[in-house]
Design goal:
about 260 residues, elongated, 6-stranded parallel beta sheet, TIM Barrel, 2 domains
Length: about 260
């Protein structure tokens, strides 16, 4: 049995709850409890984080790349092993729907979605200029990656307009996006529906966005889209002890994934 208490850290547990000088008790890779201050009667191993910040580990739904083994900043096993929970294939016609690892697929309007939905696969509509009247006839779960290969025509509203006004999940690759474009998405898409994707999520930590919001964008919302239990993508009693440590400037320090430091 492995057991440790992390103390003296700012814990951004989810988009609503932050512990300013918290402690987190971990046993066998699961969070036993979170405290607002050090637990003085604890007799086991203690790691003093000395004011560093802890956030839930990223859950990337990136279309184009797989997290590099060794970065320690992703829930890697959920992408790479036989029990994959969140694998994002490039296009639906490239994937074998008999493969039980597939949980999310990027499609366009030409795809017959019935067989995919029957398998419980979440569908993301993207890379299309489909107009709103046709979008609403499709049973999709998300839009994205937003802005990529999507035109904006005020006279024939399409995917961009739909993403900014609907309650669907929206995937956003922030790489090289101008700030004004990023602000357009953040200000118009519900906080619990926006998902940042890509292999550059650590860079997103440096942007001018509250950490509590970034937790939602880089972890919580992706888990919710895939229908994972509500303690995934959050730091709370009973959840997996998968988290990232940042310094005061939001630089990456280390990850604790699956009960070990990466």
């Amino acid at each position: 049995m492995s057991e440790v208490m992390f103390i003296n850290c700012q814990i951004v547990a989810d988009e609503r709850k932050t512990y300013l000088n918290g402690s987190i008790h971990v046993r066998d890779g699961k969070i036993q409890d979170i405290y607002h201050s050090p637990k003085k009667d604890y007799k086991g191993k203690v790691i003093d984080l000395k004011g560093l910040t802890m956030i839930p580990a990223f859950f990337s739904l990136d279309t184009f790349s797989v997290p590099q083994v060794g970065t320690g900043s992703y829930l890697r096993r959920d992408h790479l092993d036989d029990k994959c929970l969140g694998l994002f294939k490039d296009y639906v016609y490239d994937l074998d729907i008999e493969d039980d690892k597939v949980r999310l697929a990027l499609i366009n309007e030409d795809i017959d979605t019935e067989a995919l939905k029957a398998k419980g696969i979440k569908l993301v509509l993207g890379h299309s200029d489909i107009t709103i009247d046709k979008i609403e006839k499709l049973d999709v779960d998300a839009i994205g990656p937003l802005f990529y290969d999507m035109s904006f025509d005020p006279y024939h509203p399409s995917l961009i307009s739909y993403a900014l006004m609907s309650d669907k999940y929206v995937l956003l690759d922030t790489r090289d996006l101008p700030k004004i474009t990023l602000d357009l998405a953040i200000k118009n898409i519900r906080k619990d529906r926006l998902i940042f994707i890509g292999d550059h999520l650590l860079d997103d930590m440096k942007c001018d966005i509250a950490l509590s919001d970034l937790v939602a964008y880089t972890s919580t919302n992706a888990h919710d889209l895939l229908g994972h239990p509500k303690n995934n993508g959050r730091l709370m009693r009973g959840s997996k002890a998968d988290f990232i440590i940042l310094d005061k400037e939001r630089n990456y320090v280390l990850s604790y994934i699956g009960g070990r430091v990466c």
